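**User:**
If convenient, please work through this fold.
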Amino acid sequence: MATTRIEIRSDGSIKVEGDFEVVDQNGKAFGLNGRTKIALCRCGHSENKPFCDGAHRKCGFQSTIVAFDLPPVPTAPTTPTKA
């Protein structure tokens, strides 16, 4: 089993728990102060982005999530070699 579990909640946040770190686009880590569970915003209305503050309940955010399989990873095209 994976050491990190990510749960996409219908009409709500993304719950992350386990061994993980959250970094910004520059690679700087957010200070999680020892937390092993967090919720990330999906609705875009949180005042504490990227973390969820429950704003999805007030703004009426709706998104039903049901797991599905992704298609296979495309293979890189091969480049012919010159002789």
Summary: The chain is about 5% helix and 15% strand. Residues 1-66 form a domain with the Ribosomal Protein L9; domain 1 fold (CATH 3.40.5.90). The longest helix spans residues 55-59.
